[in-house]
């Protein structure tokens, strides 16, 4: 039990290229002991900033806060999964925690080698094991397959403490007592969760809204083969295996990869990009056989990958510089490029690492799609995006050049269908 949290007129600024940037503006936050509050809002509305501020020492002096970050890699510090779990000190012990959170057999692994969904569950196990007074959740199911997301929601619905849950999903808002809708750092709507869910100001931010009237680019007339996989297999450290898989990708192909966390979707995309050599079998891009001279093969210029964690991609000091990294994009006007992605033109001077999670994802997606490489690879492109972001991503993917072959890994089957993908289920 904790004392009620009562913050009045909460405002927060951070440094921007033109001076202080207001990210929270005059919020009033009241939360009783044992209450669950959902925080809803578009990408860049201030949800993550609010949670991070509440987790800072001194913001709530008498409250022990536990924050589950949107990017699980931000909380991984130990050399093994077992060591990570011991940091949280769960009462059920390491073995019981591994089993409970779907990580059986992974205790001795480097946590960075887990799939994104497995990392996210490990992160939640660590925070819950520390038994915080206030649990802060930043999109905690955004990287989960449907079955694991359902399990996590049920697990969190029975957590007895006080909780603030940043989410884009109506089923998660419904698990909370009250809801707060943010817009550009300001309170747009607040009240009982059921009433907020019924308000159009909230429901419009939660509806995936994939547009049905966006024209799908017609496949190219050519039958050129962009890439082939011949009996490709991968072995994972938990004795899991993907393959052998044989596949041919032609210009105009739209292929969706789906399946449970850890089945190998990201691994397959990495292999197609030249980042991870298969344990057996061969991969060809055009006339080139990959991995003939090493474990990576990155100088072919034939693929563009938007990774599951966009931060892995960014090297520029600001967004304009990031766009110019790719020679195919170097001549583009940064502000016009951002407008094409439905992102503010003002972001051109921001460091890409300072963008919100959703803004980072849409930037990475644009970098991959607009460059029009022969093979475009998208890893969970809608994870943690707001409703307008998901709709915009679907429109961008559907209008991708018909000269490209496109491979999209996603748990979102509705998104894959909206993009005109044929589906290959792994697992």
Compact summary:
This protein is an alpha/beta fold. It has 14 helices and 17 strands. Strand 5, helix 5 (146-157) and strand 6 form a beta-alpha-beta unit.
Structure classification: alpha/beta
For the largest beta-sheet, the strand count, sense and barrel status come to:
6 strands, mixed
Radius of gyration: 22 Å
Mean pLDDT: 89
Count the E strands. Answer: 17
Described by the principal axes of the CA atoms, the overall outline is globular
Q: Helix tally?
A: 14
Helix-residue proportion: 25-40%
Residue ranges: pLDDT <50 for 5 or more in a row?
none
Q: What percent strand?
A: 25-35%
Side by side, the strands of the main sheet go 4-5-6-3-7-8
Terminal CA distance reads 42 Å
Mind explaining what this structure looks like?
It is a single chain. A hairpin with a 2-residue loop joins strand 7 and strand 8. The protein has a six-stranded mixed sheet with strand order 4-5-6-3-7-8, sandwiched between helices. It has a five-stranded parallel sheet with strand order 14-15-16-11-17, with helices on both faces. The chain is about 30% helix and about 25% strand. Helix 2 runs parallel beside helix 4 and helix 12 (about 355-370) packs parallel to helix 13. The protein is globular, with a radius of gyration of 22 Å. The protein has helices at about 45-55, 80-90, 95-100, 115-130, 145-155, 170-175, 195-200, 200-205, 265-275, 320-325, 335-340, 355-370, 385-400, 415-420, and strands at about 5-15, 20-30, 35-40, 65-70, 135-140, 160-165, 180-185, 185-190, 225-235, 240-250, 255-260, 280-285, 290, 305, 375-380, 405-410, 420-425. The mean pLDDT is about 90. The protein is an alpha/beta fold and about 425 residues long.
């Amino acid at each position: 039990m904790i004392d009620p949290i009562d913050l009045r007129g909460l405002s927060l600024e951070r440094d921007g290229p033109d001076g202080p940037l207001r990210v929270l503006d005059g919020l009033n936050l009241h939360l009783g002991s044992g209450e669950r509050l959902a925080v809803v809002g578009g990408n860049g509305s201030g949800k993550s900033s609010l949670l991070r501020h509440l987790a800072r020492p001194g913001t709530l002096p008498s409250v022990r806060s536990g924050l589950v970050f949107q990017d699980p890699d931000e909380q991984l510090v130990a050399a093994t999964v077992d060591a990570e779990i011991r940091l949280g000190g769960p009462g059920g012990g390491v073995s019981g925690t591994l089993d409970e959170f779907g990580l059986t057999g992974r205790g001795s692994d480097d946590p960075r080698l887990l799939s994104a969904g497995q990392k996210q569950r490990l992160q939640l196990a660590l925070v819950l094991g520390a038994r915080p007074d206030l649990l802060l959740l930043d999109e905690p199911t955004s990287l989960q397959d449907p079955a694991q997301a359902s399990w996590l929601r049920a697990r969190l619905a029975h957590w007895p403490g006080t909780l603030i849950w940043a989410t884009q999903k109506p089923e998660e808002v419904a698990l909370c007592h009250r809801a707060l809708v943010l817009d550009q750092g300001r309170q747009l709507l607040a009240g009982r969760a059921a009433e907020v869910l019924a308000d159009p100001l909230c429901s419009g931010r939660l509806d995936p809204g994939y547009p049905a009237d966006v024209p799908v680019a017609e496949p190219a007339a050519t039958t050129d083969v962009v890439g082939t996989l011949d009996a490709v297999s991968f072995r994972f450290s938990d004795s899991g295996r993907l393959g052998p898989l044989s596949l041919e990708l032609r210009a105009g192909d739209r292929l969706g990869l789906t399946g449970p966390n850890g089945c190998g979707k990201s691994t397959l995309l990495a292999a197609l990009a030249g980042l991870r050599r298969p344990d057996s079998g061969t991969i060809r891009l055009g006339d080139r056989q990959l991995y003939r001279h090493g474990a990576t093969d990155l100088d072919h210029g034939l693929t563009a990958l938007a990774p599951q964690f966009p931060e892995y991609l960014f090297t520029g000091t600001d967004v304009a510089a990031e766009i110019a990294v790719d020679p195919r994009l170097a001549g583009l006007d940064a502000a016009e490029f951002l407008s094409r992605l439905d992102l503010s033109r003002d972001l051109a001077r921001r460091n890409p690492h300072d963008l919100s999670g959703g803004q980072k994802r849409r930037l990475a997606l644009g970098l991959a799609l607009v460059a029009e490489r022969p093979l475009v690879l998208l890893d969970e492109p809608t994870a943690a995006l707001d409703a307008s972001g998901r709709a915009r991503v679907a429109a961008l993917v559907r209008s991708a050049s018909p000269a490209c072959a496109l491979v999209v890994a996603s748990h979102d089957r509705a998104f894959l269908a909206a993009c005109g993908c044929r589906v290959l289920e792994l697992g």
